[in-house]
Design a protein that fits this description.
- There is one protein chain.
- It contains eight helices and seven strands.
- A seven-stranded mixed sheet has the order 3-2-1-4-5-7-6, sandwiched between helices.
- The radius of gyration is 17 Å and the shape is globular.
- The chain has one domain: Vaccinia Virus protein VP39 (Rossmann fold, 3-Layer(aba) Sandwich), CATH 3.40.50.150.
- The protein is of the alpha/beta class.
- Helix 5 links the parallel strand 4 and strand 5.
- Helix 2 packs across helix 3 and helix 6 runs antiparallel to helix 7.
Length: 246
Amino acid sequence: MKPPQSLPHPFRRLPRRIEVAEILDDPEGVSTQALTRSLGAMTQVNSRLGGVRSLLRHLRPLTRSLGHRSLSLLDMGVGSGSLPREVSRALEGEGVKVEWIGVDRELPVLGVARQDQNGPNRELVCADALALPFAANSFDVVISSLTLHHFADEAARLALEEAARVARMAVLMSDLERHPLHYLGARVLARSWWRNDPITRHDGPASVLRAFTRAELESLSRSLPFERVQVHRHLPFRIVFEGIPA
């Protein structure tokens, strides 16, 4: 495992996005045990700190308004696969049949995700979010959580453009919101909840440094092929990009 970059001390004013590398951006040399532990921490963040909840808040009314009783999802940056599984369970409990495919560019990450894969309606694909191997309009909705901040501005714009290309109904991407208090909270978690997980101890605060603000995402989405774009703020320090493809 590559030694992590040093992180700045908690700040008072909001800085610009900081391009600090995360260990999981290149998991070469990371043991399966360490990778599984770190992806498990991401699952907890999504479950307890609003990742799943924020997506469902926008996905549920969209599904109901269109009268869908079935839904096809693409998860960009699937990680452990916990996000589409939890979303599927929630919607299927309301009578909506869900089929999903998860993509990730890192084979070690997909190896962890495959440990928990069951059922014929789930598939994992090794692919780059900037060049998805799917035809236009292949899925009802493209979702993601804790993925968009991994991209520099131009790459994030291209990822959203690719998502718009393959989505019929909507693109919903939940991610962290960059904020001084959020970074301070991540540093506290790194010293407590994540203290025995060296990957998340570094990558958690680093993710906040790399995250977008609501205004930045709104600016980034200009000229993209969406009929309508909204960026919603959710507690605690979550933002959801909602785009309706043109």
